[in-house]
Amino acid sequence: MVRRLSVNPDPRRWLACRRRRPDAAFRLICFPHSGGSSGEYVRWGDFTPDMEVWAVQLPGRGARLDEPNLTRMDALVDALLAEVTFAPPFALFGHSKGALVAYEVARGLRDRRRVGPSLLVASAYRPPPRGRRLQRVSQLSDEDLLAAVEQTYGTLPAEIRAEPELVALMVPPLRADFEVLETYTHVAGEPLDCPILVAAGADDEVKPAELDEWRLATRAAFELATFPGGHFYLRDQRDALLQRIADALRRHAGAR
Question: In total, how many domains does the chain have?
Answer without folding.
Answer: 1
